[in-house]
Amino acid sequence: MARGGARWRWWLPQIGLLAMVVAGLAWLAANVADNLARRGIATGLSFLDRAARFPISESILPYSPVDSFAWAIIVGLGNTLFLSVLVAAISTLLGLPIALARRSDHALAKALGGGFVDLIRNTPLVVQLLFWYGAVTIGLPPSAEAWQPMAGIFFTDRGLYLTTFGLVGSALPMLLAVAAGLVATAILAWRGKLRQASITTLATVMISVVMACALGLQRDTPVLGRFNFSGGLTLTPEFVAVLLGLVLYASAFAAEIIRGGIDAVAKGQWEAGRAIGLSERQTLRLIVMPQALRIMMPPMTSQFVNILKNSTLALVVGYPELNFVTATTINQTGQALEGIAILMIAFLMLSGLISLLMNRLNARIALVER
Amino acid sequence: MSYVRTAPEAILPAPVVARPSLAASLFGDAASSLATVFITLVALAALPHLFAWAVTNGVWVGDGEACRDAGACWAFLRAKTPFILFGIYPEDERWRPMVAVGIFVVLTIWSLPRKHWTRATLFGWIAGIVAALLLMGGKTIGLTEVPTSAWGGLPITILLTVLSLALGFPAAVLLALGRRSPHPALRWLSTGFIELVRGLPLLSMLFVASIMVPLLLPDGVTIDNLFRALVALTFSAAAYLAEVVRGGLQGVPRGQEEAARALGLSWAQAMRLVVLPQAIRNVIPPLTNTVVVIVKNTSLVLVVGLFDLLSAGRVALSDPDWPAPYAETYLMIALIYFTICYAFARYALHLERTLGQVRR
C-alpha cells in the first residue's frame, strides 16, 4: 500500500465523521434559528443591561430588582460559590471524625458512622433536602414560641436567629491582620509547607481574637418584635435546609474518601510505625496521614466538583443560586439560548478551575519518584 | 532534619494484634468509655421522643383531622401510598404499572447470579423493556390508552433508570473506545462530549433538555416531557459509564489486542470478542455503583415537571385535608430509594469480593 493511500485511509473516515457532526449541528442550529424567528425572539446579549425586576430572596452580594440581569446572574453565581465553599470546608472537616469513627474499634462509634454513611449515600440528595426543608419550616415552632437551645440562638419556622458580636471602633487593623495571615497561609500551602501553613492559620486566629478582645465587643441579640425577630444575624429556612442537607450529604462522601485513603496506605507502614516505637496516634498523624493525603487528592478533586454541582439542587427548596436566577431570567426574557450558554460556561469554568487548582496542589504534594 | 538521640527512648509495649472484645472496645480506655457514655446519653435523651412521636402518639387509622396536633401521621401514608407509588395513572388500570414494576424486579433478581449473565438474559431485558412500555401505554396492545403525562410514581423512576442505562451503556462503550482511539477527530469528539456532560450539573442538563429540545427540533415535531428528561439522563449516564468503561479498557494489557489482531481478527472483532469482554468484566462492580448514582439521579426529574416517586410525594403532601406530614412521607420515599440503592451497593461489594480480582 502506498504511503499516500494509507494517509488517505487514515484521514477520510475522520473527515467524514467531522462532516457528519458539523452537518448535524448545522441542522439543529437552523431549527433553533427557525423556531426563534417564529416566536419572535431576538438573539443577543443586550437583555443583560436591562433591569431584572425580579426579587432575589437572599444574597451575599447586594442586590435589588432595579439592578440589571447581568448583575442578577452574578449575584446568583455569588450565592452558588458561597454555598459551595462553605459546604466543602465544613464537610471535609466533618468527614475526618466520621472516617476515624468507622475505622475505630469502638463498636458503637463504628456502627453509628457506618449507618450514617450508608443511609446518606443511598438516598437521593433531593429527598434529603426536601426533608430538611420540611423540618425547618413545618417542624420548627412559630416566632412567638421560638425554640431557644442556647441563650441568644432562636430556631423558628421563619429562620434561624443568631446573636452576633460586632467590634467597638474600627475593625480595619484586625481585617488587615487576618488578610496578611490568609495570604501567608496560602503562599505556604502553595509551596507545600503544610505544617508551617497550619501554624500560621492558628497564629492568625489567635491574633485576631486578641485584637478583637482589645477593641471590645458589642453584642447584638435578636429581639422578638410584634411579628418577628429583629437584630442579630438571620439565616433563612431555605439557607439552613440547604446548608444542612448539602453538608451532611457531602460529609458522608468525604468520610468515605478519607477512610479509603487511610485504608489504601500499606499495612506495613502501620507496622513500621509501631516498630520504631510510635504510638497509634503518632503513626496515624506522622506516617499514615501524609501518605493517605496524596491518595485522597484525586477523589477529593471530584468531590469538590460534585459539591459545586450538587449546590444547584438548592433551587428545589428555593434558595436563589445560579440555576434559579438563570431559569427566572429565561422565563422573564425568553432568551433561552443565551441563558443556557451563560449557565454552561459558568459551570464548566468553575469545574475546570477546581480541577486546575487541585491538580496544582496535587503536583505540589505528590511523591517525587526516583 | 536530623538529630542525634542522646537518651534511650521509652520502650512501648508490643503491639496487640488480637481484636478487642466488645466490652474492651466500649470501655477499654478513658476515651472509649467517654464515647460510650456520651453516645448512650444522647440516645437516652432522643429515643423516648422518637418513640413517642412514632408509636405512642402516632396515628395509624383516621383522617386528616385525627392527625392534627398528634405524633406521626401513618394514616396519611395508608391513604396516599397508592398515589405516591403510581401517581395519576387511572385507578382501574393500576395493575399495568404493577405488572411493569414486577417485570423489572423479576428480571433484576434473575440477572444477579453470574451464571445468568448470558445473551438470553440480555434479550430478556430488551423484551421486558418493550413489554413494560407497551403495557404502560396500552394503545398498541388493545388496552385503554394512557398518555405518558399520566404515568407516575415508582414506574417512572424505574423506567427512567432502566432506559437511561440501556441506551446509555452502548453509547458509553463507543465513547470509551473513541476516547482511546488513535484518530484525533474521534478522540476530540468523545473527550469533548464526556467532559462537557461531566462538567455540567445534571439539574442544569435537565433544564437545558426541557428548554432546548423543543427549540432544536423542526417545526411541528414535538416530544413529551418524559422523553426530554430521558435525553438528559441518558447523556449523563453515557458520560459517567464511559469513564468507568475506559478504566476497564486501561486495565486490559495491550498484548491482548495485539494477540487478537495477530490471529487475524479485525479491529472490531478484536474489541468485541477479546478486549471488551475482559474490560467490562473487570468494571462490573463500579458499573453497579454507577447504577446507584443513576437511580438517585432520576429523582431530579421533578424540576422538569415529571411525576416520579418524589414529585408524587410532594403533590400528596399539598393535600389541604391533611396536616402535611412531610417527615413520614419523605422517610417512606427515602426508604424505597434506600432499599434499591443499598441492595445494589451491597451487590457491587459482593461482586468485588468474589470476582477475584487482585488489587495492588
How would you portray this structure in words?
The complex is a heterodimer of chains A (370) and B (360). With 370 residues, chain A is of the alpha+beta class. Chain A has a domain at 69-138 and 243-365: MetI-like (MetI-like fold, Orthogonal Bundle). Chain A has helices at residues 3-39, 69-103, 107-121, 125-137, 172-190, 194-215, 237-264, 267-275, 280-310, 322-333, 336-365, and strands at residues 147-150, 153-156, 159-162, 164-167, 217-220, 223-224, 229-230, 233-235. Chain A starts with a helix and ends in a 5-residue tail after the last helix. In chain A, 31% of the residues are buried. Chain B is mostly helical and 360 residues long. Chain B has one domain (74-354): Orthogonal Bundle (MetI-like fold). Helices cover 68% and strands 0% of the residues of chain B. Chain B is flat. The chains are: A alpha+beta (370), B mainly alpha (360). The interface between A and B is large, with 61 and 60 residues. Chain A: InterPro entries: AA_ABC_transptr_permease_3TM, ArtM/GltK/GlnP/TcyL/YhdX-like, MetI-like, MetI-like_sf. Chain A: This is General L-amino acid transport system permease protein.
List keywords for this structure.
heterodimer; A: 370 residues; alpha+beta; MetI-like fold; four-stranded antiparallel β-sheet; two-stranded antiparallel ribbon; 11 helices; 8 strands; 7% strand; globular; B: 360 residues; mainly alpha; 15 helices; 68% helix; 0% strand
What is the fold's blueprint, element by element?
The complex is a heterodimer of chains A (370) and B (360).
Chain A: H1 3-39, H2 69-103, H3 107-121, H4 125-137, E1 147-150, E2 153-156, E3 159-162, E4 164-167, H5 172-190, H6 194-215, E5 217-220, E6 223-224, E7 229-230, E8 233-235, H7 237-264, H8 267-275, H9 280-310, H10 322-333, H11 336-365
Antiparallel strand pairs in A: 1-2, 2-3, 3-8, 4-5, 6-7
Helix pairs in contact in A: 2-3, 2-7, 2-10, 3-7, 4-7, 5-6, 7-9, 8-9, 9-11, 10-11
Chain B: H1 22-27, H2 30-56, H3 64-67, H4 74-86, H5 95-111, H6 119-137, H7 154-179, H8 184-199, H9 202-216, H10 225-250, H11 254-262, H12 267-282, H13 284-297, H14 309-317, H15 326-354
Helix pairs in contact in B: 4-14, 5-6, 7-8, 7-10, 8-10, 9-10, 10-12, 10-13, 11-12, 13-15, 14-15
